[in-house]
Specification:
Blueprint lengths: L2 H35 L33 H13 L1 H4 L21 E4 L5 E4 L7 H15 L4 H12 L17
Antiparallel strand pairs: 1-2
Length: 177
Amino acid sequence: MNTKGQIATTLIGISALALVASVVVSASSAMASARQAAPKAGQAAAPAKSPVVRKTAPPLPALGYAPVRPIDVVRATYDFAAQHPEVLRFVPCYCGCGTEGHSSNESCFIARRDAKGNVLEWDTHGFGCTICVDVAREAMQLYSSGADVQSIRAAIEKKWTPGHPGTKTPTPFPPKK
């Protein structure tokens, strides 16, 4: 066999080994995932999650001025505030809005809710305040990554408290786990 043939044969062999190795790794990974998801002996299977029910909200108002962040970012923070009061009502704000009666970062976006938690009225403060939007975005990103409310609050306080002394809203702590 000539040198080109030997190189081709070697490359085919290496490719075949790589393919086999990737199949083995994929199968191992799938089996590990299945083991983690399966209940342990004597343990009941986890109940099926109930469907997520979105809270309703009115359309965002047109204020006649551009928001402090791109409108898609602002819209996402308002939506997060509407859908996740269990997060933002326990996250402080640091813009000084406590003097306006705000008690948490949720207050920067939501003025009123009904008994079911649906938004009846927006607070427009968040449209014009970079701190409010940025705190809510950070909480939203942490929540999306799987962090719990206690961890989200701790991360927000660690970042924002040192640079904004005396401006933190009087926010209640989340319930203990």
